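tokens incoming
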């Protein structure tokens, strides 16, 4: 039977790495019987398309902000909350389903991925539209979702939002936001029930995100994801070589958070500035690693936060995994991060140096662009044309022939 695998997240469970893995192995996956392809940008609403600081075409995540989603997130058209009008979003959904229908003429198993589907599902009418499309075309849908302990998810998500400029509030304020429990979907039982209501419990493939246990068993995130698809051996696949969507260190997150507050959130004219501040923070995070594992939660705070989800997590474990506990991997030992003036001073100096380097590289890039434009400008081309013409007349006058 034709099967559509929809990888919906959650965010901060290696989603970017999985998408990179799928993209790198498109031909091999097709040989094995699974189709993964990028959506063609030109087929969708033109306001969704932007060029990032590295010159890559990307989809806008939300109109008016600096975020982009990479082209490997081919399920973006199922991600309704992009800041576009309802008519535009529906038109993109219609187009995406048309492409999806054509893909199923090439293979019986197709993969879509976009972690935004998880965070948007509470108000997501597209799920029912997708189900209607699948039923009409004889396609079964399998939803793949990774879950990690809510405290780790929230901690990592906060740092990611600071990195991408969506957060300028401090950690304590962030924890009080209403969208923490709703938009981010940290109540896993409630969010999974919403998916189950549309697609059926039997079609939800729930995978705990437990890298330490995988490593102990000689497995990886990629082999676990392949197992969810029904692929038992990935020894012939290409694995991503570097970190994808690298995190900032805690000190650099704090520096970036304060910088985020200096600009209007939706000022798209500051996209280059935002990119450079992010790149400088990433460069510093690579130059200096934290001496020990930190968290925004203290041990007692973490336990209190996790306790509110304990019963729901146990029910999820029984219903979807057939075990008593949802998470078997023990928490990593960590200390609550607090600002250390001495360490922060050193990182501020590093950041200043990194930002200077980013500005230098940006100036060099702009100079090169200007030189290219000058070489190809109409004025220059006319000058070269008349210079050649004058030289030809001069040769003719002096009886020089070629």
């Amino acid at each position: 039977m034709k099967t559509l695998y929809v990888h919906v997240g959650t965010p901060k469970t290696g989603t970017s790495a999985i998408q990179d893995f799928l993209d790198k192995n498109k031909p091999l996956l097709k040989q094995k019987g699974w189709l993964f392809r990028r959506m063609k940008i030109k087929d969708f609403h033109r306001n969704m398309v932007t060029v990032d600081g590295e010159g890559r075409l990307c989809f806008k995540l939300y109109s008016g902000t600096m975020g982009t989603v990479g082209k490997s997130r081919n399920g973006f058209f199922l991600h309704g909350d992009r800041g576009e009008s309802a008519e535009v979003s529906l038109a993109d959904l219609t187009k995406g389903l048309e492409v999806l229908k054509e893909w199923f003429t090439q293979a019986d198993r197709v993969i879509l991925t976009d972690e935004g589907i998880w965070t948007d599902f509470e108000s997501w009418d597209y799920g029912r539209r997708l189900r209607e499309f699948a039923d009409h075309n004889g396609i079964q849908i399998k939803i793949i979702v990774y879950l990690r302990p809510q405290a780790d998810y929230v901690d990592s998500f906060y740092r990611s939002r600071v990195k991408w400029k969506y957060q300028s509030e401090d950690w304590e304020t962030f924890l009080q936001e209403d969208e923490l429990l709703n938009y981010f979907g940290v109540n896993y039982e409630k969010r999974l029930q919403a998916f189950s209501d549309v697609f059926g419990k039997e079609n939800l493939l729930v995978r705990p995100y437990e890298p330490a246990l995988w490593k102990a068993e000689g497995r990886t995130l990629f082999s676990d994801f392949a197992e969810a698809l029904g692929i038992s051996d990935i020894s012939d696949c290409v694995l991503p070589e570097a970190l994808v969507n690298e995190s900032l260190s805690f000190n650099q997150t704090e520096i970036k958070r304060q910088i985020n507050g200096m600009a209007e959130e939706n000022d798209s004219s500051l996209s280059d500035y935002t990119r450079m501040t992010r790149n400088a923070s990433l460069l510093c995070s690579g130059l200096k690693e934290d001496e020990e594992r930190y968290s925004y939660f203290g041990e007692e705070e973490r336990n209190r936060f996790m306790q509110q989800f304990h019963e729901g997590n146990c029910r999820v474990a029984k219903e979807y995994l057939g075990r008593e506990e949802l998470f078997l991997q023990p928490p990593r030992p960590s200390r609550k991060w607090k600002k250390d003036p001495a360490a922060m001073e050193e990182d501020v100096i590093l950041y200043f140096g990194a930002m200077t380097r980013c500005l230098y590289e940006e100036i060099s890039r702009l100079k090169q662009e200007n030189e290219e434009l000058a070489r190809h400008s109409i004025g220059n081309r006319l000058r070269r044309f008349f210079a050649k013409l004058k030289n030809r007349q001069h040769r003719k006058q002096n009886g020089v022939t070629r």
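note: Confidence is low (pLDDT under 50) at residues 53-57, 61-68.
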